[in-house]
Structures are given as C-alpha cells and as structure tokens.
UniProtKB/TrEMBL annotation:
Keyword check for Signal: yes
The protein's name: Secreted protein
Species of the source: Mycobacteroides salmoniphilum
Signal peptide interval: 1-31
Record keywords: Signal
Length: 179
C-alpha cells in the first residue's frame, strides 16, 4: 500500500510541477499558421536605430522603417506609448508583383490584406523606391510595440502584429499570404 501511495505522490508532484511550469512559462495564446517563420530563431536587434521621430505641432510623430537586402522596405507606426495604438505595416520595393500595403482588414478579425501600391512593380512598372530605413539583415528581427518583423532567407519578409490577436503576413516571391 505504501508503494502505491508513494507512486501517487510522485505522479501528483510531477503533474503539479508541470502545471506550475506551464503557468510560469506560458504557452502562446494562438500559434502562427503553418509556414510562418519561427520568430524566436531570429536575432533581435534594437528598435531605436530604425525609428524616425519628428514633431507635428506639439504632437510627436514616429515610425519604424527598415529595408532588406532584397530591396524591400517596410514601415510601421512607432508611437512613444504604443499600447493602444494600431500599427499597420506597409512594405514596398522590388518584388514579383506581390508587395503592397499590408494593413488590417475590414473585418472584425483584423487579418491583414495585401494590396498594390500604384507603382507596385506590376505590369512592367518600376517597383518604386524603398523607404530609406536602416538595413535589417537576413536572420534578424526588429520589434516595437505589438509588431515584430523578420527577414528570412529566400527573399522572405514576415511580420506579426499581436495588437488585437495574432495577425500578420509573409512576403516571398513564390507566394505571399496573410492571416
């Protein structure tokens, strides 16, 4: 009988430790879709060198801008207090007619949608200029507020916005998609 009670105590202890580990370390509220890069595998860089600030009257305005080695540039809002601020992400530059404005969609789910800029790189038109931001190299990610963007191999740029759930997009020559 004592052997059974010792086994029960050990099992119960293991379950309690497992629950405590779960509550301390947590699990993501929602996993990113299949095919979305694992952002934990990218090297984080400080956001400050990517942020441009100016004043419009008494109001401070700011955005974070980066360019990739693939001549793709992205920007998003970087307000001093980003907690309740919508940070739509815009990307443009040299791509295979798939990059445009990636912004929160019109539905309540807040998913992103891709739309083309007027120059967009489509139909033989010039893809237009990138944003002049600092270089975000392959294997790096930059985060500010609710947004994290990363540059992966194979001309891939991925951004995740956790401001209202987990939404984002992946831009790559073979296929670009949003969630």
């Amino acid at each position: 009988m004592r052997a059974v009670s010792d086994r029960v105590r050990r099992t119960f202890g293991a379950v309690v430790l497992g629950v405590m580990a779960t509550s301390v370390f947590g699990f993501p509220a929602q996993a990113q879709p299949a095919g979305f890069p694992d952002l934990s595998k990218f090297t984080a860089v400080a956001a400050e060198p990517y942020i441009t600030r100016w004043f419009k009257g008494a109001t401070e305005m700011s955005f974070l801008a980066f360019v990739t080695p693939y001549d793709i540039g992205c920007t998003f809002a970087a307000p001093p207090e980003p907690s309740d601020f919508e940070q739509g992400v815009s990307c443009g530059g040299a791509a295979d007619c798939v990059i445009g404005l990636a912004e929160p969609g019109d539905n309540n789910a807040g998913t992103y949608q891709l739309s083309h800029y007027f120059h967009g790189g489509c139909d033989g038109k010039s893809p237009g200029p990138t944003n002049g931001g600092s270089l975000l190299a392959v294997g790096q990610k930059v985060s500010y507020g609710h947004v994290t963007c990363a540059v992966d191999t194979n001309r891939t740029v991925a951004c995740l916005n956790t401001g209202s759930g987990e939404h984002g997009f992946v831009l790559k020559p073979s296929v670009s998609w949003t969630f």
